[in-house]
Amino acid sequence: MRALTCLVALSVGYLVSGTNGQIAEQRDPLPLQRPLGGLHEEQDSEFQYLTQQTRPFQVDGKKIPDVDFDVGESYAGLMPISSDPHESRKLFFWFFPTSDTLGKDEITIWLNGGPGCSSFEGLLQENGPFLWQPGTFKPVKNPWSWTNLTNMIWVEQPVGTGFSQGTPSATSEKDVAAQFLGFFKQFLDTFKMSNKKIYITGESYAGYYVPYIADAMFNARNTKYYDVQSTLIYDPVIADDTLHTQVPAVAFLDYWAPLFGLDSSFMADIHFRANRCGYTSYLKDFLVFPPLGTLPFPPDPRTPGCDVFGDIFTAATVANPCFNIYNIATMCPLLWDVLGFPGSLAYLPPGAKIYFNRKDVKQAIHAPLSVQWAECTDNPVFNPADTSPPSSVSVLPSVIERSKRTIISQGMLDMRIITNGTLLAIQNMTWHGMMGFQSEPKDGFFVPYHPRGPLGTMAGAGIMGVTHTERNLTWVTVQLAGHMYGLLSSQTSCSFNARTRNRVQTN
Ligand SMILES: *[C@@H]1O[C@H](CO)[C@@H](O)[C@H](O)[C@H]1NC(C)=O
Ligand SMILES: *[C@@H]1O[C@H](CO)[C@@H](O)[C@H](O)[C@H]1NC(C)=O
Ligand SMILES: *[C@@H]1O[C@H](CO)[C@@H](O)[C@H](O)[C@H]1NC(C)=O
Ligand SMILES: *[C@@H]1O[C@H](CO)[C@@H](O)[C@H](O)[C@H]1NC(C)=O
């Protein structure tokens, strides 16, 4: 079942403090400012990063297929993961410089998950400068693009993902991080971008990638290339899958019961089994503030009758054939999607084409024409599997301790990575000398009100969820978001991003 193996990453960047506040994107947009020279001697007058070395990557912002506006300066292409001239492994990236003055000193990395899902899902459908979301007629400008705040790079990784080149050989997150750091150094050298502040963001399986890459960057002790400030992960896989799915499943079903619309005999049976299998008491006993102590192994879902998560998914799909595990508020019809993956099911109506598989699109961004691009590849990107422990029981606590800020966020409508499971994983982590959150998250997460804007890019505002910060870890839930935040509200996403870099004025 693809839905269960392929975690599409959705993005949005909240990175910060739990206080209600006005966010940076409300400032008047600054005019594009050019560096005064010196730094980029060979630089072309119109562009911040155009040099002889970067010219092969230059994308003509006025000629992106089907996009009828100028997306501005950007660069895309394949970059080797080492300086070896014979290096066969290359990651594909798309880099958009920001025109924001503060953001010029930074680079924010966005990573989708999977494993094996392309970060161009985030770019095109969540946080990029132009959006082409499922069901929509054509691309639109994203007023909430993260590029308004910061230099942004979307990277297809690890090797085996998207347009990236080379034979997948990673067996662990250490291998993934080594590939990424190698790539990133080549990128920074090519674009003469060393000494930037680094922010690492992503969603879903990037709950592995982001903390492990941050850990490797901290360990490298080289701030010229790897000066990590903060990380942000949405609906992240940070724990054993049973914790993310089975343990919180029936409480989640109860919470959203009218939306599931399942009959009373199913409801009675699933409660009986959740009780018998031990999920009910596990959630009740351990989801407490402060935490009770170390989380034991959760009940084994392979015990007969104990795959309650799978049974809810199956029943939901009968009642609502378009049931979308990534956003349970989705109803029929299935929407066409230029990336071919609008929900739990891959779907491309006859006559439609996958955007990044079009020859004109590939040519526009210097992508290899021979690659059959897929949002999430069917071929393994780990060989044979990812042997690393989840981040909450390995590198994440120390990444929190070494970062200025860490944001973990959850869309409440996501059933693939369920909010209560992620919260349980947080309650089982010890950072800055204490375990878990000492008090229950309950402050409102405020997204500034704003003019409605064009109908194609409307975004929610007000108290959108709950936020809580302790010891530099911020938790945020968004009530009406699914796994992929941007699909709900790129503005909320943008708000996250502003918070990541502490550009939130408290009022
Ligand atoms: C983002 O930048 C674009 C281009 O400069 C601008 O039109 C838009 O209003 C900005 N968005 C916000 C929220 O400030
Ligand atoms: C999370 O768990 C708590 C405690 O069991 C429960 O009251 C709440 O409804 C759950 N929330 C969701 C969204 O499942
Ligand atoms: C809780 O944390 C401990 C210590 O890191 C770890 O050994 C254990 O596996 C964790 N429990 C769960 C269910 O993740
Ligand atoms: C949180 O980070 C700041 C620096 O950003 C640091 O000064 C502070 O001591 C940290 N808080 C804790 C509890 O470690």
UniProtKB/TrEMBL annotation:
SUPFAM superfamilies: alpha/beta-Hydrolases (SSF53474). Its EC number is 3.4.16.-. GO terms for molecular function: serine-type carboxypeptidase activity. The keyword Protease applies. Residues 1-21 form the signal peptide. It holds the Pfam family Peptidase_S10. One of its GO terms (biological process) is proteolysis. It comes from the Eukaryota. PANTHER family: CARBOXYPEPTIDASE (PTHR11802:SF479), SERINE PROTEASE FAMILY S10 SERINE CARBOXYPEPTIDASE (PTHR11802). This is Carboxypeptidase. It comes from Glutinoglossum americanum.
